[in-house]
């Protein structure tokens, strides 16, 4: 029992191990069978599957040898290369991508394999497209490129049609797919065939031709030809002919027939043939260039001897092809150079079967002289010597050879014959040319006659090249002899000249006085030669060669051939000096010296040359201006001066580089440059580039300059100011060392006490300094920069403490005395005096938060022009004045606050009791709204949907003239916000500009969660809870006229109609003014109502204009205003909108405005069935900040009855919709 358990356990473990060890180690392809070797294949082919790419093999397709080898046939349907994978019972193993080997099963041809023309064949096989790019077919290892797939099976090519090139013997065909080669098949071309063997002359050693077909073209590597078993040398072959050499000393082994054997690529054929016929010859001797030429038919030169006068002369002869023929066995040319001892006589050719006799007559041949033209023969004649051969008086048989000399048609025998190779002859006196002479015998010589010329030699000058002061004379017969004389312009220069091979060179200098003119060469026995020579000027030196850049100096040019007069024509030459190819004024002294004036200039290596008539130019010499030198670098405030030597007199000649940055400069005086450095420059170095010359590098130290401060320090010592100036950089460009700057100031009332300020470096033009010292009056601020051990102290900058800065004031009713609070910055609490206009505000005391309180009698009348009254604050004798005080005016509250609040008669606003809300406290207070959040786009949002939304945004800035006509409009949709900051959770800041306009818009957006009084320009405004407040600052508006106004346009809008489930409610608006009235009073509050939600806007009655307090002017634009049309283009036509304009007067710097917006939910007034149906509605209101504005959204979350979907729209609803459609 235990054994059975152990055996079962072993079998179980073994199966588990095998399953876990499923893998492929290798594979092998033989034809179409794949053998896979590995482990874990199991024994059940039905649970086993192999795949190659997308092709799968399982079940009956598999032959399992054991669990380590499986065979399967991939068939003929075609398999693509791909992943070899095995899967067994859900387990799988990827072996990797494999390539399928192609196989060739057969090759067929449409006709026999011709050796002369290509043959078409069809190659049939498998796996030709396993790589998906087709197969390559190889012929003897060479890829056949003209193969195309011609048969297909299941979209796989199974046959290729190819053009097999002509050839002989056998060849091998195989294929390649990817990197795999198939099996190969061997095939044979047609065997050779002998038709005829062409006979040649016996012993002629001519080529033998075999005619037939299926031969191998030349050059050969598969063909063997043998005659009676002796291999012959094949010299040429094509498809139908074979030419070969045969040893003609051999005799046939079979009577008169030879056995001709041919083997072509392993295929052979034999034929019995007679190879030779009886030979025939001919000869026609002639002479050419002293050699005898004999033309022969069917020569058998290797077995033929040649005798002349019974002497073998074969060694003097060379067999060569006859012109136009390459076959020397058929017709040849024999060229014989017989020795001089051979005379005219008999000759013959002989071989083993024949003899050819002939007579050869040799004419005399002259070797020297080698030319047929004999020049310069003396007029009185003279002896001439001839060297040559065949100068024979008799022939070989003793008969006369009639050797004579023919000269000018006369025959002479008075020659002196030394031997048959050398003779002399005295040419009689004569003259002229065409005196013909030749030697003849019984055979006239084919050699042309000699032409004897009696000519007097002539000197010829072809050209003269001037090289500086030397002359190179080229021509003929220029060999200098003792009798030769060379003159130039009448001056003998012979002693200055020498032969240079066949030319004459005169120099390196020529005699003094030589000038342009006629060059004459004379020599005894020669005709003289003349040449008109114009000499090119030559500069030998200049003095001086360095010049000042600022003054005129004389330059002397020394040289030769400075010809102001043409020596030949005696006309004036245009003699000029060119500096850098520009003509300058010159003074001619003589032919060896010229002067010119060098004007102030810059740079080095200026080219100077002399020109005559702009056709003859001298060599170049160069001069330079002195290299610039910087001697001093001075600073006067932000102006700098460079003093030196050799600076350019023109500003454009000088390029100043400070710390390797080019700086504009100008010449202020001789060798002095003025320049302005950038404010940000540091200590470092300077150099000047004058022309192409660089000065020395001069170390520089810049004294800092204080230009301005960001604001005056306050007398209480609480100020941090920014000091602006030049050259505050804290690093030396040249030495890379630190150059710190310190700041100190002295009060005028205590000049002996220097106070060092704690300052921090900001950048190269600014420091941040803390003024912690209390004081008043004037002071002097200075900066000290330290560079290594040197210190540089700035200018003394005069500053004063900030006089009292009056910002705003609370108000009183006219002639109602009382306390006023004045917001003031920079004053001393122990020294205060306050005036409203000229009336003192008594008992002035300092409060917290920069407030001064005093008792004002309210006795100064208001200004008739509507401007605010001056308030003057005096502290420590420093006076601060600003127009900030307005008297209160009485303003009634709407509906007397509905008896649910307290009316503020100063601003006409109600302060509602805790249970009431709205402008007139007439509505029961609703649940508070969620706190908004502001994103980086200025959008402030309360949680909720958008069933009701209110949008208030600044949409336009418009300038108008006195008549109210539009001058300029900017749309806020075109603004670019350069700064978008969230200062705190409830406050955001935006700063934006426009392209192509100087105006700047700043928005400060603050969320007020709780109700709060806010003082703006002395006007106290009650900010309700859950309100958005804006402070708008507009700067740099470029008014067209100081009489114009600027309007800041707000767009307030909401949904035009609201469906509360029972009726359609149209949006409406109201304000503290009747919209139809003509009253010009400013709007202080505005309300927009949609459904049960309302949006309130409050506007201060005051504004800051260039820091002065002015009364505000807020109005609701008439519906006919053109801006309504512009606004409608970007908003839905289903919106209800009102445009509100805050109009400001002309300002130089800026204007500050202060609108605020709040939202509330009004209680429903309906007591109908709708009230019961809608009692589930929970109101939520959101404030969304858009472009400089706020969007107040009221959301109603409702549990809606299903019957609501089927309610009927009453007649009133239908009529309102109709009215909307008609608009």
From TrEMBL:
Gene3D superfamilies in the record: Immunoglobulins, Laminin
Keyword Membrane in record = yes
Hey, what's the signal peptide range on this chain? 1-21
**A Pfam family reported for this protein in Swiss-Prot or TrEMBL:** TIG
Which key words are in the record?
A: Disulfide bond, EGF-like domain, Membrane, Signal, Transmembrane, Transmembrane helix
Location of the region described as Disordered in the Swiss-Prot/TrEMBL record:
921-942
Q: Which cysteines are joined by disulfide bonds?
A: 893-903, 912-921
Give the stretches traversing the membrane: 1178-1201
Annotated InterPro entries: ComC_SSD, EGF, EGF_extracell, Ig-like_fold, Ig_E-set, IPT_dom
Q: Which residues form the EGF-like domain?
A: 889-922
The record's section on PANTHER family has:
EGF-LIKE DOMAIN-CONTAINING PROTEIN, EGF-LIKE DOMAIN-CONTAINING PROTEIN-RELATED-RELATED
Q: What is this protein called?
A: EGF-like domain-containing protein
Organism, scientific name: Dictyostelium firmibasis
């Amino acid at each position: 029992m235990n054994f059975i358990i152990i055996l079962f356990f072993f079998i179980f473990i073994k199966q588990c191990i095998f399953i876990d060890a499923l893998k492929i180690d290798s594979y092998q392809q033989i034809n179409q069978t794949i053998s896979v070797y590995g482990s874990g294949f199991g024994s059940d082919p039905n649970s086993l599957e192999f795949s190659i790419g997308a092709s799968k093999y399982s079940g009956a397709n598999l032959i399992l040898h054991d669990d380590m080898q499986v065979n399967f046939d991939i068939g003929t349907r075609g398999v693509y290369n791909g992943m070899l994978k095995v899967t067994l019972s859900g387990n799988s193993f990827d072996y990797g991508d494999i390539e399928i080997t192609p196989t060739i099963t057969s090759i067929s041809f449409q006709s026999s394999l011709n050796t002369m023309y290509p043959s078409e064949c069809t190659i049939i096989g498998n796996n030709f497209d396993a790589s998906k790019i087709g197969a390559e077919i190889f012929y003897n290892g060479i890829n056949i490129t003209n193969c195309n797939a011609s048969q297909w099976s299941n979209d796989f090519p199974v046959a290729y049609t190819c053009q097999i090139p002509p050839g002989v013997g056998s060849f091998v065909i195989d294929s390649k797919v990817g990197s795999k080669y198939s099996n190969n098949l061997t095939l044979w071309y047609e065997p050779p065939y002998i038709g005829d063997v062409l006979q040649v002359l016996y012993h002629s050693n001519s080529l033998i031709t075999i005619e037939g077909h299926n031969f191998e073209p030349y050059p050969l590597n598969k063909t063997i030809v043998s005659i009676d078993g002796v291999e012959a040398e094949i010299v040429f072959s094509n498809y139908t002919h074979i030419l070969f050499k045969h040893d003609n000393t051999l005799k046939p082994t079979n009577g008169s027939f030879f056995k001709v054997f041919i083997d072509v690529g392993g295929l052979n054929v034999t034929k019995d043939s007679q190879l030779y016929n009886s030979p025939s010859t001919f000869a026609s001797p002639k002479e050419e260039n002293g050699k005898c030429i004999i033309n022969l038919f069917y020569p058998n030169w290797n077995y033929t001897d040649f005798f002349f006068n019974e002497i073998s002369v074969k060694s003097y002869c060379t067999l060569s092809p006859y012109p136009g023929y390459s076959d020397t066995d058929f017709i040849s040319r024999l060229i014989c150079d017989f020795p001089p001892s051979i005379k005219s006589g008999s000759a013959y050719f002989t071989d083993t079967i024949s003899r050819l006799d002939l007579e050869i007559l040799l004419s005399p041949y002259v070797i020297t002289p080698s030319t047929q033209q004999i020049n310069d023969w003396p007029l009185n004649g003279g002896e001439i010597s001839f060297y040559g051969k065949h100068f024979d008086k008799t022939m070989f048989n003793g008969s006369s050879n009639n050797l004579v000399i023919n000269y000018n048609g006369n025959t002479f025998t008075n020659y002196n014959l030394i031997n048959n190779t050398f003779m002399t002859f005295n040419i009689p006196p004569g003259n002229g040319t065409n005196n013909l002479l030749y030697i003849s015998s019984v055979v006239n010589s084919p050699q042309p006659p000699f032409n004897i010329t009696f000519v007097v030699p002539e000197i010829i000058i072809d050209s003269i090249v001037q090289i500086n002061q030397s002359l190179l004379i080229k021509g003929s017969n220029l060999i200098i002899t003792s009798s030769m004389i060379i003159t130039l312009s009448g001056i003998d220069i012979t002693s200055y000249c020498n032969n240079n091979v066949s030319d004459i060179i005169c120099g390196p200098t020529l005699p003094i006085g030589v000038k342009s003119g006629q060059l004459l060469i004379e020599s005894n026995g020669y005709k003289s030669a003349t040449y008109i020579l114009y000499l090119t000027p030559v500069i030998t030196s200049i003095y001086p060669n360095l010049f000042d850049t600022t003054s005129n100096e004389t330059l002397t040019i020394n040289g030769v051939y400075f010809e102001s007069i043409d020596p030949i024509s005696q006309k004036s030459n245009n003699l000029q000096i060119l500096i850098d190819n520009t003509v300058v004024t010159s003074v001619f002294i003589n032919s060896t010296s010229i002067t010119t004036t060098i004007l102030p200039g810059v740079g080095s290596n200026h080219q100077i040359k002399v020109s005559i008539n702009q056709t003859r130019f001298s060599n170049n010499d160069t001069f330079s201006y002195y290299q610039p030198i910087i001697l001093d670098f001075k600073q006067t405030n932000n102006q700098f001066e460079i003093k030196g030597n050799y600076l350019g007199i023109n500003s454009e000649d000088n390029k100043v580089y400070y710390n390797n940055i080019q700086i504009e400069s100008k010449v202020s005086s001789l060798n002095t440059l003025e320049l302005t450095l950038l404010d940000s420059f540091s200590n470092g170095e300077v150099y000047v580039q004058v022309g192409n010359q660089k000065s020395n590098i001069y170390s520089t130290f810049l004294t800092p300059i204080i230009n301005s401060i960001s604001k005056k320090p306050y007398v209480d010592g609480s100020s941090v100011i920014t000091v602006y100036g030049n050259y505050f950089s804290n690093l030396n460009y040249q030495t890379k060392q630190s150059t710190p700057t310190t700041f100190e100031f002295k009060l005028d009332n205590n000049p002996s006490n220097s106070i060092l300020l704690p300052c921090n470096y900001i950048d190269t033009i600014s420091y941040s300094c803390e003024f912690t010292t209390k004081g008043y009056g004037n002071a002097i601020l200075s900066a000290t920069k330290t560079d290594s051990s040197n210190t540089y102290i700035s200018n003394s900058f005069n500053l004063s403490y900030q006089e009292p800065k009056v910002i705003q004031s609370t108000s009183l009713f006219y002639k109602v005395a009382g306390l006023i609070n004045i917001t003031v910055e920079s004053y001393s609490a122990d020294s205060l005096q306050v005036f409203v206009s000229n009336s003192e505000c008594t008992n002035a005391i300092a409060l917290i938060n920069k407030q001064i309180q005093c008792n004002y009698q309210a006795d100064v009348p208001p200004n008739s022009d509507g401007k605010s009254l001056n308030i003057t604050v005096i502290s420590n004798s420093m006076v601060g004045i600003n127009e900030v005080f307005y008297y209160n005016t009485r303003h009634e509250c709407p509906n007397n606050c509905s008896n649910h609040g307290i009316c503020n008669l100063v601003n006409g606003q109600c302060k509602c009791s805790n249970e009431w809300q709205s402008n007139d406290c007439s509505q029961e207070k609703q649940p508070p709204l969620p706190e908004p959040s502001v994103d980086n786009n200025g959008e402030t949002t309360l949680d909720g949907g958008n069933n009701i939304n209110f949008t208030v945004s600044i949409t336009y800035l418009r300038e108008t003239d006195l008549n109210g006509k539009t001058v300029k409009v900017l749309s806020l949709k075109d603004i670019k916000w350069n700064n978008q900051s969230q200062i705190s959770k409830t406050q955001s800041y935006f700063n934006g500009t426009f392209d192509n306009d100087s105006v700047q818009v700043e928005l400060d957006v603050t969320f007020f969660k709780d109700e709060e009084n806010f003082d703006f320009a002395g006007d106290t405004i009650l900010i309700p809870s859950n309100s958005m407040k804006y402070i708008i600052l507009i700067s740099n508006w470029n008014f067209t006229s100081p009489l114009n106004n600027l309007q800041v346009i707000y767009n307030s809008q909401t949904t035009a109609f609201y469906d509360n489930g029972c009726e359609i409610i149209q949006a409406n608006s109201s304000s503290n003014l009747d919209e139809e009235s003509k009253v010009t009073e400013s709007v202080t509050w505005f309300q927009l109502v949609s459904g049960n939600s309302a949006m309130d806007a409050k506007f201060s009655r005051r504004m800051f204009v260039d820091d002065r307090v002015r009364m505000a002017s807020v109005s609701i634009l008439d519906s006919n205003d053109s801006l309504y049309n512009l606004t409608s283009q970007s908003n839905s036509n289903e919106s209800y909108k009102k445009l509100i304009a805050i109009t400001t007067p002309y300002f130089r710097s800026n204007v500050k405005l202060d609108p605020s917006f709040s939202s509330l939910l009004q209680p429903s007034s309906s007591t109908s069935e709708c009230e019961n149906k809608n009692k589930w509605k929970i109101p939520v209101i959101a404030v969304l900040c858009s472009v400089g504005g706020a969007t107040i959204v009221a959301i109603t979350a409702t549990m809606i009855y299903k019957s609501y979907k089927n309610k009927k729209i009453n007649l009133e609803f239908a009529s309102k919709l109709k009215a909307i459609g008609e608009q």
